[in-house]
Amino acid sequence: GNGWGYGVWQIDWGSHEAFIATGQAEDPEASTDYIAREILKPNRDALMNKGLTGDALIKAMVASYNTGLGNVSNHLYDPDTTTTGGNYGSKVLAKAIEFFDKFKALLGNV
Prior knowledge:
Elements: E1 5-6, E2 11-12, H1 13-21, H2 28-49, H3 54-67, H4 69-73, H5 88-96, H6 100-107
Antiparallel strand pairs: 1-2
Helix pairs in contact: 2-3, 2-6, 3-5
């Protein structure tokens, strides 16, 4: 994407233009559902295929939201290496605690 973040979760316009155009990026529930289903779940599945589980999987999955799956795949055990500020995944995990029940319902057990 081109780095233009919109809405509650700063969803990238360049990668998710159709969703952002609906206006739902500003809605916390709709945008959380969207990123869980369209971004985090596919990234989780790919990272699980690389052997990650548990906390390492969650941290890598969240970091991939910022820096992309390819970058995280090159730094599996230090996924924040290429994220914004070198700590994006950790910061978002702190915020995600509030939404954890929603993620778990959409993604199943990790």
